[in-house]
C-alpha cells in the first residue's frame, strides 16, 4: 500500500513505521526499484508507542500488522492518537480476519 500511495500522491509526506530495520530496508529497495520519487520517511519504531506527535496524520494504514501484535487494542489507541480530527484509519486488519 505504501508504494501505491507514494506513486500516486501529488503532495504531502508519507511515513512508514516498522519495528524491523530489515523490513524498512526492503521497503526502501522496492521504492527505488519502482522509481518512486519524493520523500518517504522510514521510521524504526514500535506501534504500541508510536514516535509521532498526537494528531499528526490524515491517514493511517496497516497491512495485517495488527494481527501480529500482542496488545493490538493499544495499537488502535495509538492510531486514534496520531490521527487528526476527521482523519481516517484505512485497511486496518485485526486478528480473525476482520477489519476496523
Gist?
Helix content is 31%, strand content 23%. By secondary structure, it is α/β, with parallel strands linked by helices.
Task: Please describe the topology of this protein.
Layout: H1 2-8, E1 14-18, H2 21-33, E2 40-44, E3 57-61, H3 72-82, E4 83-90
Parallel strand pairs: 1-2, 3-4
Task: Give a written overview of the molecule.
With 100 residues, the chain is of the alpha/beta class. The protein is 31% helix and 23% strand. The protein has helices at 2-8, 21-33, 72-82, and strands at residues 14-18, 40-44, 57-61, 83-90. The chain is globular and about 35 Å long. It starts with a helix and ends in a 10-residue tail after the last strand. The mean pLDDT is 81.
What are the main properties of this structure?
globular, 100 residues, 23% strand, 3 helices, alpha/beta, 2 domains, two-stranded parallel ribbon, single chain
The percent of residues in helical segments reads: 25-40%
Query: Which secondary-structure class do the elements indicate?
Result: alpha/beta
Strand order of the largest sheet: 1-2
- Write the H/E string, N to C: HEHEEHE
Count of domain modules? 2
- Summarize model confidence as the mean pLDDT: 81
Beta-strand portion reads 15-25%
Largest sheet: number of strands, sense, barrel closure: 2 strands, parallel
H/I helix tally: 3
Rough shape? globular
- Output the radius of gyration: 13 Å
Uncertain parts = none
The total count of strands amounts to 4
Please report the distance between the alpha carbons of the first and last residues.
Answer: 17 Å
Amino acid at each position: 500500500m505504501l508504494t501505491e500511495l507514494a506513486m500516486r500522491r501529488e503532495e504531502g509526506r508519507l511515513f512508514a513505521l516498522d519495528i524491523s530495520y530489515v523490513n524498512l530496508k526492503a521497503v526502501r529497495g522496492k521504492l527505488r526499484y519502482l522509481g518512486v520519487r519524493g520523500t518517504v520517511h522510514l521510521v524504526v519504531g514500535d506501534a504500541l508507542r508510536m514516535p509521532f506527535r498526537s494528531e499528526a496524520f490524515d491517514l493511517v494504514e496497516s497491512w495485517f500488522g495488527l494481527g501480529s501484535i500482542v496488545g493490538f487494542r493499544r495499537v488502535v489507541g495509538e492510531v486514534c492518537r496520531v490521527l487528526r480530527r476527521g482523519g481516517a484509519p484505512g485497511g486496518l486488519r485485526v486478528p480473525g480476519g476482520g477489519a476496523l
